[in-house]
Each structure stands twice: as C-alpha cells, then as structure tokens.
C-alpha cells in the first residue's frame, strides 16, 4: 500500500495486487473517499458514526457513494486470494480525495504525475451503482455535467425606488427560462415510460448570491445551476439557447462556466468493442 500527497490533507491511497505478468498494462479499480455535505437532522443515525442496525444495514455518509463499490472490489480480491487464485495482470485499487468537487486536487493531479505513469494502467473501472436484486444495470452512456454561474448585474439604489434595469428583474427572467425548460424535461420523463433520467436534461438551481441589506437594491445577483445534459442533445445548440436566454433577460447578463464537460460518445455495444465482448461473455457465463 502506498499513500501520496499532492495537496495537504488530501491523501491518495493505492493498494496493489501484483499479477503473474507484471509487465502487462495493469487494471485500476478506482473509488473516492470524500463525500458531499449532510443535513444531519434528516438522518436516523449520526451520518459520520457508521452505525449498523439489526438487519445489517450500515448508515454512514458515503456508504453508498461510493465506499460500497470499493468494498466490493476488496471483497472480490479477498475471496480470490483465499482460493489461491492468481491473475495475469496487476490490479491497483485506488482511493481518491476531491471527487465531489471536481477532482482537481485528486485524480487530475494524480494522472499527471510520474507515480501514476509507473503504475502502467491500461484499463480503469470507476464509480458504479449497487443493485438490490440479481439484476445488474448496465450504463453505457452518461449525461454531460455543466456547472453554470449566471451573472445578473443591474442598477443599484435604495429599496424605496422603482428603478429600471435591476438585477432582480433579470434574475426573475432567467429563473423563468430555466424552470420552464425544467418542466418540459420532467413532462417528457413522466409521459414516456420508455425514457429514463439519462434520456432527459436536468437543471437545478443550487445557489443564489447577492444583496447587501434589506433596503438596498443590489448591483448584481449570481445564480448557480447544476445541469446534466442528455447525450442526445447538441451541445452547441444548447449553449446558444443559454446565451439567448441571457440576452433576453437584459443588458449585461452573462454566463460563467464553473464546470463544462464535453460530449463523451456512448459506448458501443457490438462486436467492434473488445471490452463489451469480454463483459458480455463473463455475464453470460454467470
């Protein structure tokens, strides 16, 4: 086991099981240790207490996202080693920090390092989902994440006035655009039973910033939206739509992209993909 620090208080832990042919490209089983914030009053148990109930259910922040997957990696290897099995390729199990806030001080720093290159990684399995039954869902595509910060500047002044061109008016117009679009996507999902969440685009207002005190019209409001775009959406057209919404909202409204993934084409599920062939054969054998 090795621990690396590219940033203070953010350890990267690597556990290695050396294969019979260590010169071959290795396999990495990746997971992350960090979690998002909690609302403690919504929890049955202390979210950081790792409590187990009488049925064996574990209540702990991050138990599902995503320590349960990392534990499954470890348990699978434990069983194979107990049966004295050996693999051709070396396996690295990685535990990363910083995933929930973009991975800049976690995986991004690691993959750019000499330490990562020395692992000779040829294939990675990353975060997945648990299944409560014997059906294993296969996800071959993923929505594209954009973190959108919209600046709504306007004429500041005293709260007793009825000024034109205020930040609040522009904010209302932006919110109307986003929530009308959100309702359209919800309606698609509700009316078509063949669609899943991955087939539609979700937008959610996550932060609002602005104002100095309750009798002053502020110079700006900032709105942050978490947006997960369906792979079927044309990203250039979607960005043009957002720009048009800003233009229609009023003078000076503009977008700052805090996070902007590009399109990753969904995985091919046919004979052209050697991973799919191997995965399907293993599943059929099971």
UniProtKB/TrEMBL annotation:
It is found in: Cytoplasm. Its EC number is 3.5.1.14. It comes from the Eukaryota. Keywords: Cytoplasm, Hydrolase, Metal-binding, Zinc. The keyword Zinc applies. The active site is at 34, 99 (proton acceptor). Pfam families: M20_dimer, Peptidase_M20. Binds 2 Zn(2+) ions per subunit. Residues 142-250 form the Peptidase M20 dimerisation domain. Zn(2+) 2 binds at residues 65, 100. SUPFAM superfamilies: Bacterial exopeptidase dimerisation domain, Zn-dependent exopeptidases. Its cofactor is Zn(2+). Its main location: cytoplasm. The keyword Ribonucleoprotein does not apply. Zn(2+) 1 binds at residues 32, 65, 127. GO terms for cellular component: cytoplasm. One of its GO terms (molecular function) is aminoacylase activity. GO terms for biological process: amino acid metabolic process. InterPro entries: Aminoacylase-1_M20A, ArgE/DapE_CS, Bact_exopeptidase_dim_dom, N-acyl_aa_amidohydrolase, Peptidase_M20, Peptidase_M20_dimer. Belongs to the peptidase M20A family. This is N-acyl-aliphatic-L-amino acid amidohydrolase.
């Amino acid at each position: 086991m090795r621990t690396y620090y590219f940033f203070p208080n953010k350890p990267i832990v690597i556990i290695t099981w050396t294969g019979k042919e260590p010169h071959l490209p290795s396999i990495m089983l990746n997971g992350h240790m960090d979690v998002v914030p909690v609302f403690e009053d919504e929890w049955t148990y202390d979210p950081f207490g790792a409590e187990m109930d009488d049925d064996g259910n574990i209540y702990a922040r991050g138990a599902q996202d995503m320590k349960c997957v990392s534990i499954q990696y470890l348990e699978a290897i434990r069983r194979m080693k107990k049966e004295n099995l050996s693999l051709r390729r070396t396996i690295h199990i990685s535990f990363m920090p910083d995933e929930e806030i973009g991975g800049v001080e976690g995986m991004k720093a690691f993959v750019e390092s000499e330490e990562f290159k020395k692992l000779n990684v040829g294939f990675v399995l990353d975060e997945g989902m648990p299944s409560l039954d014997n059906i294993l869902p296969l996800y071959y595509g993923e929505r594209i994440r954009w973190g959108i910060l919209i600046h709504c500047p306007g004429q500041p002044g005293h709260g007793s006035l009825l000024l034109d061109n205020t930040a609040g008016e522009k904010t209302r117009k932006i919110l109307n655009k986003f929530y009308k679009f959100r309702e359209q996507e919800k309606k698609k999902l509700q009316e078509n039973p063949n669609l899943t969440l991955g087939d539609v685009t979700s937008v959610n207002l996550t932060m609002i910033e602005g104002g100095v005190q309750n009798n002053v019209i502020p110079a700006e409001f900032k709105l942050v939206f978490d947006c997960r775009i369906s792979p079927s959406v044309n990203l250039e057209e979607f960005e043009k739509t957002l720009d048009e919404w800003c233009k229609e909202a009023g003078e000076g409204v503009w977008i700052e992209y805090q996070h902007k993934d590009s399109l990753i084409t969904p995985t091919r599920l046919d004979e052209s993909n050697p991973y799919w062939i191997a995965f399907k054969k293993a599943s059929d054998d099971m």
